[in-house]
Known about the structure:
Chain B is an all-alpha fold. Chain B contains 3 helices and no strands. The chains are: A mainly alpha, B mainly alpha, C alpha+beta.
Amino acid sequence: MEMFGDSSWLYMYMPIAGVTIFWPGLVLIGFSVGVIGGFFGMGGAWMVTPGLNILGFPMAFAIGTDIAHIAGKSMVSTMRHSKFGNVDYKLGIVMIIGTMFGIEIGAQLIMYLERLGTVGTVVRWVYVVFLALISFMVFYDYYKAVNKKKHGEADGERGTEGITWYKTLHKIRIPPMMHFEKAGFTCSAWLPIIVSFVTGILAGFLGIGGGLLRMPALIYLIGCPTHIAVGTDLFEVMISGLYGAFTYTLKGRIELVAVFVMLTGAAIGAQIGTVATKYAKGYGIRIAFGIAVLCCMVSIILKEYGFAMMSAALILGTISLICIYIMKIMFVGAAQELREKKARG
Amino acid sequence: MRKLLKIGAMLSGLLALIPQLALAAGEKADELIVVADTRVLNNSVMLYFADLYNTNILLFAIWAVVLTALYGVFLGVTMDFIMARTGLDLSKRKIVEH
Amino acid sequence: MRNIKTILLTAALLVLLASASAWAASVAQGACVSYDENTKILVLDEYDLNFSKEFRFGQPTGVLTEFDTSTAKIGMRIEVGDVIRLSYNPVGDKNVALKIMNVSKQDLMGK
Lengths: 345, 98, 111
């Protein structure tokens, strides 16, 4: 409250964590996750945990709340993909074992750190490393795309033909062996279980969906066709979100009010984000995305060293700018499409 | 794409380090318990859930999961309904959200 | 078939809701005046709801209340002077505590 003088109406009381939160920030975070996630097609949950923490949620609450909102968001996208038959349910169900164990271990680790009183600091630093890796990935992809364009190469349907590690991994015949019909391969059940276990720990610890790691693992380590990997990953994100929500609630570390506020923002944002992909051209936006990730990282460091106000301003400012940019793409594009449609009709 | 795997390996390594980091911070193994302050709540829905949080956390957890899932589905269906009425061609957009 | 499913689901939710209405407990917050490790009796000087910068957890009212904590879930160790928040149910002439939060020791704000 001391942050903005007398403006108590901007603050909302969170009944369980017992903190007062700058609610426009909460709405903005939810909305931005929707817009950015919808546009770039990768979660966006990575900014929720730090964002909630910076707004004033205790770290464990931030993680629990983040993971619960993922569950809500992934319900519909999973339903859509299963309608198209993109989910290998057998694979998904085998992976549930690893995912749930992983989430539980991740959550237990958080609770353990909380007892030691170091959860905030440790999670913030892990996030700093995690976001540094994401931004590196984004910039590297940009660099590669620009290079390719220079040399006039076209992107292959699967730009990945070179890597066939899964062929080697499929040769490991530790029983039980399993055949996955839809995905079209046979392998030891332990392979998907181990992959989902590792991503589960990460998801439970950071409060993310884990798709960032699970998707490439499904494609390159397990050997799923890309569209099955997307659908099955979403199914797994949903399970991981639901179980994560359950276990974090059981541990008393969730703020339902915040989950609902964010979900509402995210649902609206996601529409804008996904529609904007239709009209977006070029790779420039990727750079903006990379910079946003870096800004988010810096704001976590600011928070760690006690500059709460600066940190909040930086993260909220950054995500607002990106949102405005994407919204501009969407509204300009949509207006033009509707105008053309009118002219034709 | 190979780098993704490297990143995965690095992250797992990082996670393995955490317990050690925690141990270095010293032992202080008291559980943290949170009691929702129902004295300050007037809204009956909030009060209901805060009370549940204080008395029956399992039921609260079931509620949280069920409500989150239901609300997620509700929002998705509502948004589809609205977007279908904007007149935009939505068949080309990518739907990859997670 | 679909109707039956919907009805069953609604019924299940209603049962859940109804059974939950029985779940309520009072909450008290205040400074620990005394805590007996043997009898597990905790005495609080209850605070009111006038939160302010100097009194973040409310102001002392001077009302002393006894709580039986023998069956409660206790977090961080209770010491005299700590600000405690607890949920309790009055049973007979006793206040039986359910969950005890050590507000001053685990101040979650800004963590």
